[in-house]
Design goal:
The complex is a heterodimer of chains A (396) and B (346). With 396 residues, chain A is an all-alpha fold. Chain B has 346 residues and is an all-alpha fold. Chain B has one domain: ABC transporter involved in vitamin B12 uptake, BtuC, CATH 1.10.3470.10. The longest helix of chain B has 39 residues. In chain B, 51% of the residues are buried. The mean pLDDT of chain B is 83. Classes of the chains: A mainly alpha (396), B mainly alpha (346). Chain B: Keywords: Cell membrane, Membrane, Transmembrane, Transmembrane helix, Transport.
Chain lengths: 396, 346
């Protein structure tokens, strides 16, 4: 259970993540009844600020928090970048379009080819933004729940689980409607998440990032080979699965977006409401329990929000990896580790990343286009390796 | 002082027993492999009598059996055997080196490099034959080198190597999936070979590279197996016992990559064979005995039996990688639960 304390001279990236929060720091206190040493009204104001100021000492606290001015500036910057990315996503693509086409397409006319192209790009842009926001948020929540800087719906095998559930549903139960896809994908995502977390947290040391990542990788391989086994004798559904197995937003339709919305809103609400408990969880299980938090239940609730988000996105777009990994790490640079800020930032950042990746995929592979899933893999894998290299072995 | 001779005798007897048991295990496994080869050669959609099989192997022309055995079944059996040996040996060495049963080459991305290169050369460049194998081997080596260098920070630590490998592997797998699924003349059967591994379309001309790899890298690994066992005690203790850590680790990694890359180039990344062979061998063998040789034999046995099951027992002719993948998934869960209950770390 007890991990060694990170030393104060932790490497440069060390302050990026909540995962290095010492678990045993206040272990002695945690055994006391909450009323003895810790205020009961932990929800009166930011639990992190108080607890971290006391538990960590003033030396490291400033590096974990960001001044409010910086956060607001970051937020403005993100929103501006989002607007630019949305404009790019509508205006740039395989086919060049003029201003008149863009105006016409946005107004809903499809009389010229250019206008029709723009009209197709609008739902695509919206889907990219929604899917990116969901994945970024899901990644941030998963990193908080597992306290692993390497948590991501792709790395942990949750997307693969959702994909397999959809294939099973199509092959054996003949599901065809969007809402059925969504339901099965969420079921599969929760199954995979539960399996990987259980596998990763058994044994000595609890759920370490290394064990979780290994369990996720092994589960992905197992699940995708089972998916293949189901798919192989079924040439009738292979075609529709083929288009969907590399994550992409190219097939966006208003119907898909409408079906996605309620699930995304539910996931968003659950995730954002978990921000406070994630902050407490970041202090370590013992401390969180000592502060009166029901650790297992809050983990479950927060994870359910993340699973809803990434399961729904996988059902519509296919498995898209690495967005949930990259975005929270970059957002921590802007807004610090407080989840009440980090979660909204990650949602916006995820939307930005996925829209840009989509535009990049259209530009790079002209006259065809690269699926957004492969672009995010190439953006994300270097970041993953960078995170691994930043940390000490003990923390992995 | 008087007890010393009897103690020595006891230790010697114990050692002999362990040696004998290790030899017995290898013998039993070899016999099982022979039986599996005989099974795959004689049983199938057109059964061939064992005597006829022997006559065909001896070079005689047997009407009705020669084509089936010589052209169809023999290459499959030989390739399954050799690829299984490569995967089992390489996987067990890698797991022992990195001290984790989950850290097998297929999970940490060494196979993914070879697979992605093979798919790229076939789908995009339109190559075929030995050129694809060479590209797959070179790319497997390059991937392993990249993982090794990226994991280097004042030396290579096992945990960092595994994690960097997982990242690289995720990236390469998305490349493979993208190339296969977007290829114009996409065929699920061909794609399957490079996503989960298959010995469909095996030719005897694919065997020499595998034999060469086994002779070269297999011998290297078996020669290093003593140092490898010592490394399991931990870097510090192994160094104190006189093992040159960095050199041993590099040699073993080279051996692992060579075996896995060649086998992947021929048969695709047959899912989970490298992953399963080591733990099964460790369970069958005596604790503390080197497991590399039994693991290699178990790898061969696994591929032979899984291919037989996919071809004959299951409806629909599944490629071998699908069968090993389906067997491997539950075993993976069982393994993790068991190892954790025993208090070990993964």
């Amino acid at each position: 259970m007890i991990r060694p304390l990170p030393s104060p001279d932790a490497p440069a990236g060390g302050n990026l993540s909540c995962a290095q929060t010492p678990r045993a720091e206040r272990g002695a206190e945690a055994g006391d009844p909450p009323s003895a040493s810790v205020p009961c009204r932990i929800d009166a104001d930011g639990p992190l600020s108080r607890a971290s100021a006391r538990g960590r000492g003033a030396g490291t606290a400033p590096s974990l928090r960001r001044p409010a001015r910086l956060r607001w500036a970051g937020l403005t910057l993100l929103l501006a970048a989002l607007a630019v990315a949305a404009a790019l996503s509508v205006g740039v693509g395989t086919r060049e379009v003029g201003w008149a086409d863009i105006a016409g397409g946005l107004a809903g006319r499809t009389s010229t080819i250019g206008e029709a192209v723009v009209a197709v790009r609008v739902p695509r842009t919206i889907l990219a933004a929604l899917a990116g926001a969901a994945l970024g948020l899901a990644g941030a929540v998963m990193q908080g729940v597992t306290r692993s800087p390497l948590a991501d719906p792709g790395i942990l095998g949750v997307n693969a689980g959702a994909a397999m559930a959809v294939v099973v549903g199509m092959a054996w139960f003949g599901i065809e409607t969007l809402s059925a896809y969504l339901g099965t994908a969420i079921l599969g995502a929760s199954g995979a998440a539960a399996l990987v977390y259980t596998m990763g947290s058994l044994g000595r040391g609890g759920a370490t990032p290394l064990k979780l990542a290994l369990a996720g990788a092994a589960t992905s391989i197992a699940v995708s080979s089972l998916t293949m086994a189901i798919l192989l004798p079924r040439n009738d559904i292979a075609g529709s699965v083929q288009a969907w197995q590399v994550g992409g937003v190219g097939g966006a339709t208003p119907d898909a977006i409408l079906a996605l919305m309620p699930v995304l809103l539910a996931g968003l609400a659950v995730s954002l409401l978990s921000a406070r408990t994630l902050n407490i969880l970041a202090l370590g299980d013992d401390t969180a329990a000592g502060l009166g938090l029901s650790v297992a239940r809050s983990r479950l609730v927060a994870a359910a929000g993340a699973v809803l988000l990434c399961g729904a996105v996988t059902a519509i777009c296919g498995p898209i990896g690495f967005v949930g990994l990259v975005v929270p790490h970059l957002c921590r640079l802007l807004c610090g580790v407080d989840h009440r800020w980090l979660l909204p930032f990650s949602a916006l950042g995820g939307a930005l990343l996925l829209m840009l990746a989509d535009v990049l995929g259209r530009i790079l592979a002209r006259p065809g286009e690269l699926d957004v899933g492969i672009v995010t893999a190439f953006v994300g894998a270097p970041v993953f390796i960078w995170i691994v290299r930043q940390r000490r072995i003990r923390e992995l | 002082m008087t007890t010393e001779p009897s103690l020595v005798a006891e230790v010697a007897a114990h050692r002999r027993r362990r040696l004998r048991r290790g030899a017995a295990l290898v013998l039993v496994l070899s016999l099982l492999i022979l039986a599996a080869v005989a099974l795959t050669l004689s049983v199938g959609s057109t059964p061939v009598a064992p005597l006829d099989v022997l006559r065909v192997l001896a070079g005689q022309e047997v009407p009705g059996a020669s084509f089936t055995v010589e052209r169809l079944r023999l290459p499959r059996a030989v390739l399954s055997l050799l690829a299984g040996l490569c995967f089992g040996l390489g996987g067990a060495a890698c797991q022992t080196l990195l001290r984790s049963p989950l850290a097998s080459p297929d999970i940490i991305g060494i196979s993914a490099g070879s697979g992605a290169a093979a798919v790229f050369t076939i789908v995009v460049l339109g190559w075929s034959g030995p050129a694809v194998s060479v590209a797959a081997i070179l790319c497997g080596l390059a991937t392993a080198l990249a993982i090794y260098l990226l994991a280097w920070r004042d030396g290579v630590a096992g945990a960092r190597l595994i994690l960097v490998g997982i990242g690289i592997s995720a990236m390469l797998q998305s490349v493979t999936a993208y190339l296969l699924l977007r290829a114009p003349d996409w065929s699920l059967q061909e794609a399957m070979r490079w996503m989960t591994g298959s010995v469909n379309g095996a030719r005897l001309s694919d065997a020499p590279p595998l034999l060469l790899a086994l002779a070269l890298f297999g011998t290297l690994l078996l020669c290093q197996s003593r140092n490898l066992e010592t490394l399991r005690l931990g870097d510090d203790k192994a160094a104190a016992l006189g093992v040159r850590i960095a050199r041993t680790r590099l040699l073993i990694l080279v051996g692992v990559v060579g075996l896995i890359a060649v086998a992947t180039a021929v048969a695709g990344p047959i899912a989970f064979v490298a992953f399963l062979a080591g733990p099964i061998a460790a369970r069958l063998g005596m604790p503390g005995r080197p497991i590399l040789l039994p693991a290699a034999l178990i790898g061969a046995l696994l591929v032979l039996l899984a291919d037989f099951a996919g071809q004959v027992l299951l409806p629909g002719r599944y490629p071998v990688g699908i069968v090993t993948g389906a067997v491997g998934a539950p075993y993976l869960i069982y393994l993790i639960v068991r190892v954790n209950r025993a208090g070990g770390t993964i």
